[in-house]
Every structure is written in structure tokens, then in C-alpha cells.
Amino acid sequence: MGQSKKAGLSLTSLATVIFAFIANLLVAVAKTVAALMTGSASIVAEAAHSWADTGNQVFLLVAERRSSRQRDSSHPMGYGREAYVWSMFAAFGLFTAGAVVSVMHGSQELISPEPASDFGLAYAVLGISFVLEGMSFIQAFRQARESAKLLERGTLEQVLKSSDPTMRAVFAEDSAALIGLGIAFLGVLLHQLTGSPVADALGSILVGILLGVIAVVLIDRNRRFLVGQAVTPALKKAMAGRVLEHPDIDRMTYLHLEFVGPRRLYLVAAVDINGDLREHEVAVALRRVERSLEEQDIVEEAVLTLATPDEDALTFEGGASSAIVE
Description:
CATH topology of the largest domain: Alpha-lytic protease prodomain-like
CATH superfamily of the largest domain: Cation efflux protein transmembrane domain
Strand order of the largest sheet: 1-2-3
Number of strands: 3
Structural class: mainly alpha
Shape: elongated
Distance between the termini: 12 Å
């Protein structure tokens, strides 16, 4: 995959975040107006949810911008991990501004319920919100599906395993938003039919619990990539093939791969060079292979060392794999 493909993936992620930001902002304003006019606990929870999502998109935009910077002397491995840091902030924001506020407000409504009215407005806002959130979700789903096809894996599997935290965050938040809208609709409907605010308040609490679960999952995924998430066997096999296909390489006895950002790897390998070269020729050959690997968009830095004769060559089961984008 060339540089144009890498830029295309980055622009797709950016477009997904921008689309989600605009949709969430419109939805947040509409829900806030409806919450003030109806007094529905579920709508209040949904308004808090949408404002949390809107603020999170700002963090994700920062993540996309800062993580795309080229490496320099102060950051020899690049700035890719910035994406996980800022996505972590977004996940904490979803937990505090969305989950905690929703659960607290629902609990207060159970203790001291307030009358609700203008149910028609609540239904209208929920309907509009569903359309806007649905459009944002479709954008995130398409991005995840395209990446999943390249890796020959399921869309949900790609969302969980992908090294792209912004795509995962938007997909998860939009999924939670659509489920939350369904919960809010049931809460408002039962409130209207029974006259009891209990269902509405419980709807607010359920929305908060849902957001809390999503936030914990996102925090855990970002944590894993920050501390050193292992690559999948398919990716390791693919990168081993990339090393071994170089004409200077005879065999490989060691391979270490580590994510240093979305779709960016730090590669360390022990190899045998073809032929019986002198010391300075071996050094030149190693540097030549390293530069060749670093020309590939997924490799941030490659470091090669010589293998010893007594080390066994690495072998990988199955055929060649072209799955190199995670």
C-alpha cells in the first residue's frame, strides 16, 4: 500500500470524525431544547450523551491532527501514540459527562420526580436525532467495513482490533447513541402511557450504564495500544514476508513488531544476508533493507541485526498474507 493509500485512510478517518461532530452538535442542541421543554429524564440523559459525544469529537480531531505529524529528533518514533492519548481523553469524557450525569439525573428523578409534558416534541426530536446519528453511524460503519475487507475479517472484529482509535471511538459512540435513543423512546412512551416517571428515570440510568460500558471498553483498548499491543499473527506473517521478499535477505530468525501509532509499526528483525559478504558490505546491505522497509507506509522505523548460524529460521503456517493494514 503506497503513500496515497495511507493518506486516503487518514482523510477517511478525519471525514468520519468531522461528520460525527456536526451530527452530534445538531443533535445535542435539539435534545437540550426538548429536555428543557418536556422535563423528560431520558431526554435529559440523551442531551448529556450528545454533548459528551460532541466534546469527544474535538478530542478525536486533535488526535488525528497531532498523531499525523512526522517524527523528529525529539520523537524518533513519531507522534502516532498521540492518537491513543487523546482518544483516551475522549473516552474519559464519555464516562464522566455522559455516563455519570445520566445515572445521577435518573437517580434524582426516581427520588424527586418532576412532571413531564410535550411528549410529541420529545418524539420528534428523538426521530430527528435517530436520522442524524444513523447517518454518522453509516459513515463510521463504511470505514470499518472497508478496512475489514482488506484484512478479511468481520466488521465488528475490525472495530475492536483496529489500531485506529478514532474510527473505533466514532463507531462505538454512534452505536451507543442509536441504542440510547431506543431506550429513551421506550422511557418516554411508558411515561406517557402510565403517567409514572419511573420508566423514564430508569431509561436515563440505563443510558448512563450503556455509556459507562462503552467508555470502559474504549479506555481499555487505548490502554493496550499505549502499553504495547501485540500484533495479530496475520500481520506478523505479512510483515515477515515483506522482509524475506527482499533480494538481500536469505532467512530471518527473530521478528519484533510494535504499534507506535495507527497503522504504524516499529520493526526489529534478525536476518541472514545472502552471500558471504565482508563486514562493511553487510552493514551497507542491512541499511539498504531497512530503508526499503521504511519506504512502506506501515513501517515507522526498521532495525535489522545479523542472525547467528545456530538460530532457527522463523516459519509461519499457511500461505502468504497481504493483510498489512490494521
